[in-house]
Specification:
Layout lengths: L15 H6 L9 H4 L17 H8 L2 H10 L7 H17 L9
Length: 104
Amino acid sequence: VAVYPDYYLDIGDIPLQRTYEFNPLPPSLTAEQQQHVIGVQGNMWGENTVSLQKIDSFSFPRLLAIAETGWTQQALKNYKDFEARADQFEKRLKLLGVPSPVAP
């Protein structure tokens, strides 16, 4: 089992683009093995996220990037397009009182 820091939400210094461009289907897997990858998961460790504000600021918009990785083929991903959509989502979060992300 490999560790993918790109998907650890409590690591605040991972650039959003790195999370978005992460490929959950490692090239070391055969095509048959890749068919058994059924999803993606973002993780957060509680000892690093001691407040709801910190949880929110670490989670968004990185959760968007992780989710999109789950349903978009690697060849079809477009970070500039994603970034524009994430900006719109962040405006909605701001209206809801969710703090701005701390991750670059």
